[in-house]
Fold:
Amino acid sequence: MSPTQTPQPAPPALRALLRRMPKAELHLHIEGSLEPELIFALAARNRVGLPYPSVQALRAAYAFTDLQSFLDLYYAGASVLLTEQDFFDMAWAYFERAAADNVVHAEIFFDPQTHTDRGVPMASVIVGLAHACRRAHAEFGISASLILCLLRHLSEDAAFATLEQALPFRHHFIGVGLDSSERGHPPEKFARVFARARELGLHVVAHAGEEGPAAYIETALDVLKVERIDHGVRCTESPALVQRLARDRVPLTVCPLSNVKLRVFPDLAAHNLPALLDAGLCVTINSDDPAYFGGYVAQNYLALFEAHPQLGVAQARQLALNSFEASFAPEAQKARWRRELDAVVERLAG
Ligand code: ADE
Ligand code: ZN
Structure:
């Protein structure tokens, strides 16, 4: 799009399809779904003081200059979470929104160190979240699983200790991820922890190439042996890497609104997701931290399609297909979602 063009709403049939087609969400930090209203409600319930006088004042502080400026607020927001009920309530609020966007499958990140370092028991975190996942399946038909993320700004020892502490709850999570401040904390720092996670039969994923260089994507693949890359948008700095990602269909869980809010791209029109899709990569659309970045997953689809008018029904369908392909769900389940997707495409855009 040229700088003089303003984004136009996508045609109504395409907007309906983007909202109503079944989709998987694979990159969602549950602590990033904590809306300011819920932060204030939990702060009151738990008698935790907040440095903001009101919901509006807190929301007004959501003007980020980079990843770290966001993380500082995100960790402060999570300080209101103390009990198993708090973790349930946070996740339940996410599932209600995900159901409205027809998310049929969610693989959800959680950051245990943010809580255990404040004295919150690991059991409260995991049992509360797992309870919400079970209820989301029962009430909304959403299949949901948890991925334990290790904070890369903390030490390897701390990561090992966290993984060991979580092992009594091994049946409640399917994988291990790596998040937080990327620059200066390359994937190699966690080579041994990820080897241990793989030994335990856990899936492995890592944030790489969000703010960090393309080389971090390569070491996440080669050293950590991850199955998906979270973000990965800086892969375009290495044409050989782009070719590899396309050839091996390594999924990238891309988060368009997050990338603009954290200034990875100046605006959505400059986002490289359409180019990556064209290059044959298994890219997916996700919301990252929707309470902080201005939209849940359907809003991410809508905003991106609005900024790139060349994207249409074929790309919408491909992105939903990619989300199923990239998920850790069983093959038979993926086949059912693909059939459901084609029925919705036929009905709304056929
Ligand atoms: N934790 C929550 N959101 C994150 C992001 N976008 N990048 C790295 N760590 C995160
Ligand atoms: Zn993320």
